[in-house]
């Protein structure tokens, strides 16, 4: 009897854990913010740049709060701030710190894109840009940061580095192939030499009289096929 009771308890515990897991899972997966792969974006002064930000939400959202901050998590350094009512509408900007900032992208059709464009860039715009998203149902905000570096001209540094890396990798592969070929060649030579030596051994054993005269010259006169 007690066995069945224990089984019942175990089942209840198992179910409980499962349900708790199901309940916790959406909490941790509910929102994710991304600024893309690049951690640093380079842009030329005087031009405009898109600072990308997208978020994913598995379970939808309502009155989602988003904002971008500069160099700090301090709300007073907010560049732009807004609300997305639901998944069917575009975001509504509530306040904006600078006329050079425009909200790009769309939150319709699951795009969840709240990128901003910063135009007429100045060197003083260099710094950390953080995109924040907060679901009112959740306590924590979610954020992602990208570093903007304003330069007076874009250097081809990255390309050079890539080229160097490619050259080095190519060189190493080339060297490896060369070494392999060299090894094959050397093995071939050694094999040939050994074969020759064997031939010599065979021929000399076939012609004992070579020891008497000048080696080689005499052996040549008599073909070794006589054996
Ligand atoms: C960018 O800065 C450089 C150096 O200060 C300046 O010569 C150039 O005119 C600037 N370009 C623009 C488009 O403002
Ligand atoms: C990003 O979010 C984390 C967790 O809520 C927080 O600790 C951190 O201060 C935030 N970063 C910025 C720059 O606001
Ligand atoms: C977000 O929107 C901007 C402006 O339309 C676009 O350039 C960018 O590619 C979008 N990003 C993504 C990840 O769709
Ligand atoms: C923001 O941070 C960057 C790098 O950390 C710095 O160069 C820049 O001066 C800062 N800007 C302001 C206004 O504090």
Named CATH architecture of the largest domain? Sandwich
The helix content is 25-40%
**Estimated radius of gyration:** 38 Å
**For the residues shown, what is the average pLDDT?**
80
What is the fold-level CATH name, i.e. the topology of the largest domain?
Answer: Immunoglobulin-like
Hetero ligands: 2-acetamido-2-deoxy-beta-D-glucopyranose
Distance between the termini: 97 Å
Encode the helix/strand succession as letters. Answer: HEEEEEEEEEEEHH
Please give the count of helices: 3
In CATH, the homologous superfamily of the largest domain goes by the name Immunoglobulins
Describe the protein.
The protein is α+β, with helices and mostly antiparallel strands and 227 residues long. The chain has 2 domains: 29-151, Immunoglobulins (Immunoglobulin-like, Sandwich); 156-191. Helix content is 37%, strand content 26%. The chain contains 3 helices and 11 strands; from the N terminus they run H-E-E-E-E-E-E-E-E-E-E-E-H-H. The strands form 3 sheets. A 6-stranded mixed sheet has the order 2-11-10-5-6-7, with no helix packed on it. The longest helix is centred in the C-terminal third of the chain and has 50 residues, at 157-206. It is flat. It binds 2-acetamido-2-deoxy-beta-D-glucopyranose (NAG) (4 copies). One 2-acetamido-2-deoxy-beta-D-glucopyranose binds next to loops. One 2-acetamido-2-deoxy-beta-D-glucopyranose (NAG) binds next to loops. Residues 218-227 have a biased composition (Basic and acidic residues). One of its GO terms (molecular function) is sodium channel regulator activity. It is a single-pass type I membrane protein. Residues 26-147 form the Ig-like domain.
């Amino acid at each position: 009897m007690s066995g069945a009771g224990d089984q019942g308890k175990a089942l209840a515990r198992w179910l409980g854990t499962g349900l708790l897991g199901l309940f916790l899972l959406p909490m941790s997966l509910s929102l994710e913010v991304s600024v893309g792969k690049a951690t640093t974006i380079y842009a030329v002064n005087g031009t405009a740049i898109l600072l990308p930000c997208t978020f994913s939400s598995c379970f939808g959202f309502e009155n989602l709060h988003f904002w971008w901050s500069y160099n700090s998590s301090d709300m007073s350094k907010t560049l732009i701030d807004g609300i997305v009512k639901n998944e069917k509408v575009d975001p509504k900007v509530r306040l904006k710190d600078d006329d050079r900032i425009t909200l790009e992208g769309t939150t319709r059709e699951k795009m969840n894109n709240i990128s901003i464009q910063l135009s007429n860039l100045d060197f003083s715009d260099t710094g950390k840009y953080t995109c924040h998203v907060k679901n009112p149902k959740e306590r924590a905000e979610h954020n992602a940061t990208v570093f903007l570096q304003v330069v007076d001209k874009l250097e081809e540094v990255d390309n050079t580095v890539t080229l160097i890396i490619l050259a080095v990798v190519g060189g190493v592969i080339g060297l490896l192939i060369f070494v392999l070929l060299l090894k094959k060649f050397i093995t071939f030579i050694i094999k040939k030499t050994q074969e020759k030596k064997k031939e010599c051994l065979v021929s000399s054993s076939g012609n004992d009289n070579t020891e008497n005269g000048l080696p080689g010259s005499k052996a040549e006169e008599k073909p070794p096929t006589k054996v």
